[in-house]
Amino acid sequence: MIATLGTKPQVVTTSLDQLTAAGHRPQAVTVLHIAGDPAVLAALEVLSREFASYPPYRDLPVTFAPVGGPWSPVAEAAALADAESAFRTVYQVILAAKRDGHEIHLSVMGGRKILAVYAMAAAQLLFDDADLLWYVLAGGAFLAEGRLHPRPTDDVQLVSIPVMRWSHIAPVLTDLSLVDDPLQAVERQRALRRRQALQFIGAFVETALTAGERRVVAVLVQHGLSDQEIGARLSLSPRTVERHLGEAYAKAAVHWGLPSVTRAQLVALLNLYYASGSAEALS
Q1: What CATH class does 183-282 carry?
Q2: Could you tell me the residue ranges of all domains in the chain?
C-alpha cells in the first residue's frame, strides 16, 4: 500500500485496516508526506510507534518517503520547481514498486491536495489493471476523537476510484518502465497516444472510405466548405457530394462505435489526421 499523509496519522492506519478488511492485505506500506512540517513529523512519530507496537502491523515493513527527494525536500509545493519535485517523488515511489513486481493499492485519503493530484496522475501513467486507487470516507466521532483504528460502528467507508490509464498497454511492457522522470513519461505517453490515434484514423480513411469518398472528405475537413462548394472544387454535383458524405458518416459511426456521426463530428474525428500531413501520402 502506498498512502499520502498530512497531519492525521489515522488516514494511513484507517486505509490499511479497511483494505485488510476488504481482503486486500498489503505486504508493505510506503507513506508519502510533505517534509518540514512539525505537525506532519508528529504524525510520522505516531505511525512509527503504531507499526512497531500494533500486533497486526508488527511484521509489515513500512517506509516513510518525504516528497521532494532526499537532497532538497520541500515544505510546500508552491513554486513550479517544488511542484515538479513532488511529482517526481510520487511517480518514482510507484515506479519502484512496479519494477519490483508489486500490485499497488494507492490511498489518497491524507495530505495536501497536490499530493493526491500527483498520485492520481502517476497512477494514470503507471497502473496496470490489477492496481487500485482508494479513498476512505470517514466522519463522525471517529475523526473527532482522533482514534487510529475505526470501530465497526464508525462511519468509515472504503471507496474505489476509477483510474483512466493513458494506454491499454501495461507500462512494465514498454520503455515507460525505464523512465524515471514523470514529465518525460507524460511526453512519451502523449506521443504514443498521438501515434495510436493517427493509426486508428488512418485505418478509417485509407481502408474504409472509397477513393471518391476520400476526396470529398479531405476537402470538407481541410476547408470546411458546403456541399455546393465542394462539388464545384471537385467537379461533382452537390448530390454526389451529399451521397459520399452520407456514406462517410455511416462508416465513421461504425468505426468509432457511435450511434451516428454528424458533419461537425466527422471533421473533429479526422482533423488530427489531415492536420498532421498524413493525408499527403494518399495524394
Answers
A1: mainly alpha
A2: 2-176, 183-282
- pLDDT > 70? residue 133: yes
CA distances from 31 to 17, 50, 63, 65, 140 (A): 15, 13, 6, 6, 25
In whole angstroms, give the CA distance from residue 135 to residue 124: 16
The answer, yes or no, to whether residue 281 has pLDDT greater than 60, is: no
Confidence of residue 112 (pLDDT cuts 50, 70, 90): confident
The three-state DSSP-derived secondary structure of 160-227 is EECCCCCCCCCHHHCHHHHCCCHHHHHHHHHHHHHHHHHHHHHHHHHHHCCHHHHHHHHHHHHHCCCH
Three-point CA angle 219, 220, 221, nearest 5°: 95
Q: Which CATH architecture has domain 2-176?
A: 3-Layer(aba) Sandwich (3.40)
CB atoms within 10 A of CB 37: 16
Mean pLDDT score, 219-223: 95
The secondary element (H helix, E strand) that includes residue 87 is helix 80-99
Element (H, E) at 103: none
